[in-house]
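thread: overnight batch results

M.L. [08:02]
morning all. the overnight job finished for the chain we discussed friday. pasting input first so we're all looking at the same thing
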Amino acid sequence: MARIKAIVIKEFFHILRDPRSLTIVFITPVIMIFILGYSFSYDLNRIDVAVVDFSQSTFSRQLVNRFANNRIFVLQFSAGGNSLPAAEEMLRQEKIKEIIVIPVDFSRRLTVHGQSDFGIIIDGSNANTANLVFQYNEMIVLEFIAEMKKVGQLLQLHTKIYFNPEAKSQVFFIPGQIAAILLMISAMLTSISIAKERETGSIALLFISPLKSYEIIVGKTIPYIIVALLDGVLTLMFSRFWFGIPIRGSLLVLLFFAILYIIAGLSIGILISTTAPTQKAAMLAAQILTMLPSYLLSGFIFPIDSMNPVLRGISQIIPATYFLRIIRGVILKGSELKHFLYEGLMLILLSFVLLLAASSKFARQRKAVQ
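M.L. [08:03]
and the structure it wrote out:
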C-alpha cells in the first residue's frame, strides 16, 4: 500500500500541473450535456406488454389478442388476480413498456350496458416512445371497436403515464448522455497516462522501479477515480438544476454503481494507454472505443432488442449498456440496489478483465525493455 500511495501522490501532482487538461475535462461534459440535451430523438420498433386481465372473459381475450397479433406489440406477461404489482415491478425494471389492465366487469358491461372501459399504464421515462405507444394503443382500440360492431364507440381507454407524466424528452435523454460522457471522460483521463510517460521517456523509471506492474496500474487508476467522480457530480448537478431532471432514487446507490462504472472506463483507458504509441493516438482511440459504442450499441439511441444478434452480443461487453439501466432506473424510477445486481456484477467483471489485460500488457513491455 505504501508503494501504491507513492504512485497515487505522483499522479495527483501530474494532474494538478496540467490545468488545461483539467479545464477540458470539466467544461466538455457541461457543453455536451447542453448541446445533446436538445438534439436526440428516438424511433419506436417494439412495445413489450404485460396484461392484467381481471375479467378473463371472451371479450377481454379478444382485446388482448388484438394487441398480441400486432407486429409492434410483444406480450411478455398475462395474468389476472393480484398480478398488478408484479407487472408494475416489470415496468420499473424496463422489462416492459406498458401494462394493459382490464377490469373484472369488462365483459358484463359490454353485453349488458353496451359500454365499458379499461386502462393502460405506460412507461413515460422515454417521452417520445410513450407518445408513440399511446398512438398505437388508440389504433388498436379503434380496430377492436370496428371488429365488435355492436359495441359501437363506447369502449373507453384510460391511460396513465408513470415516471415522466409530463412526457419530457430530456428526462430520458440526459441521464443516458451522462453515462456516455462519463465513460468517455474516464477512458480519456487514463488513456494518455502511460502514453505520456512513454513520449517523455519517464516510463523507463517505472520499468526499472521495484513496483510490480499491477501496483503501477492500480496506482495510476485511483487518482482518476476521484477526478471522474467529481466530473459525474458536476454533470448530474447541472442536469438537475438546469434541465430540472428529477432524482427519485438513492444517490448512494447511484454513487456505488458510478464508482464501478468509472473503474471500468478507466480500465479501458489504461489498456489503450499500454498500446498507443502517442498521447494523440491514445485520446483518439479512447473517443472511438467509448463514444460510438455508448451512443449506438448500448441502448441509448437504438433498442438492443431490435439489433441483430452480432451487435446485440457486442453490446453485452460495453459498460454503458449496464450503467444506462442503472442511472435511468435510479434517477427516473427510484429503483433500488437489488434491481441492479446483475448490472453491478457485469461492471465488476468487465473492470477485472480490462485491468488484468492492461497489467499483463504492461508487464510484457517491462520485460521486453529489461
